[in-house]
Structure formats: structure tokens, C-alpha cells
Amino acid sequence: MMHDVLADMLARIKNAQVKGKTELTAQPVSKLGLSILDILKVEGYIDSYDYKDDKRGGVVTIKLNGKINGIGAVKPRYALKLDEFEKFEKRYLPAKDFGRLIISTSNGLLTHMEAKKKRKGGVLLAYVY
Fold first, then answer.
1. Which segments in the chain show pLDDT lower than 50?
2. How far is 10 from 17, CA to CA, in rounded Å?
3. pLDDT of residue 2
4. What is the pTM of this model?
5. Judgement on whether residues 60 and 82 belong to the same structural domain of the protein
6. Which domain holds residue 122?
7. Torsion of CA 36, 42, 45, 51, to 10 degrees
8. 91 contacts: CB under 8 Å, gap ≥ 6
9. Do 109 and 83 share a domain, yes or no?
10. CATH number at residue 110
11. 58 and 11 assigned to the same domain
12. Phi and psi for 74 in degrees, rounded to 5?
């Protein structure tokens, strides 16, 4: 039984990237995972993804472009206030403004850069650089 679908999908992406693969398949996939893939695509960390609903959790095929050095889910999920962003940037990212923290806010999923601009706090879900 799988407990954290998001962490499993991000670990698969990291492992495929380390092995030098250009494509991977992840199953099952949650709506949260698809939203994070949207952010990764917009930020340029992946080329594309294709989701197919097989009535058993879904299957996603992800095309990698070699730009991911590190990616992972954050456990436990920390609640962030506006003044705490820098502390978690130092903890999960290698340098300031290098990489992204993915945060669940009342406006949906945002990167920490967008959350700072919109002045929104939220729950820290994942990081990528």
C-alpha cells in the first residue's frame, strides 16, 4: 500500500534524472501531482507530460529535459507565513533564487516567488532545483 503518492512520483522523477533517462512513467497519480507537473512544465524543469486515466489511479508519462538537479516532497508539510520563506529557502534550496519551493495556497499551487509577489502564505509541499 502506498502512503504518499506525491513523494513517490517526485522520487521517480529524481531517480530517472540521475540515470539520465529522457522519459518515465509514474502510477498512480493524484490531482495534486498533476498540478505540480504543471508548475514544473511552466518553470522549464520538464518538457511535457501525458496523463491517461486507466480507472486505477491513472498513469502519467513524463518527458524530462535534464534540468532537474534535485526534487523531492517535504515531510512533514510545514505551514508557511510570509516572513518564513527565507528560512525554508535556505533549508531546501542550494542558493537564493536558485530553484523553487512549491506551496499550496488559497489561490492554488504557487511557487514561492509567486507567493511572495501575491503576499500569500500556505503549506510547503515540494522543492525543485
1. none
2. 11
3. 74
4. 0.93
5. no
6. 74-128
7. 50
8. none
9. yes
10. 3.30.1490.10
11. yes
12. -100, 125
